[in-house]
Amino acid sequence: MRTGSYVYNIINSMNLQKTGKDNSKVNYATNRLTALLFIIYLMALCWILLFKLGVRFSYMGDRRVNLIPFREPSILTSENILNVVIFVPLGIYAGSLLERWNFGKKFFFFFLISLIIEGLQFILAVGAFDITDVITNTLGGIIGLMIFKGLEKAFNNRVKAHKFINIMAAIGTALMILLLVLLKMGMLPVRYQ
Fold it and tell me: Could you tell me if residue 81 is inside a domain?
């Protein structure tokens, strides 16, 4: 019953219209929470993509560059799908935090983050620089941005959409951290080595 009333209070508080100073305090707190969740997401992204969850894979140390996009016979490979999915939160966070940026700036931001990660994988010899990954990562950011815009239209209010994203992101972040900890401790039937 307590959990139900807690969820009810969260949803109910999202529906209240606040004005004046109250509204700016709520927006400030919402933005700070979003920024914190975004920082946690970026740290997890680096740990997964650059540090490979602390595992040494056989391909590490082999520096390769692929500048030919989608060399595989099938575009819908599991790697391409995962590259899109892992960058969707970047687009959602950009939509909520970079409100004043136009689409071109946000697109360049997704491209730049992806380019930096791919470049660092090559420099640190933890993976290849692959232009296909840059494209699929950027596409993931764009899809995330479209999801944010869709939520904004569904709620018909940017602040409510922002709060909803924070709730979902907090739950997702907690689950992601739990999954990564359990995976690292070898407590899951899945092995990533």
Answer: yes
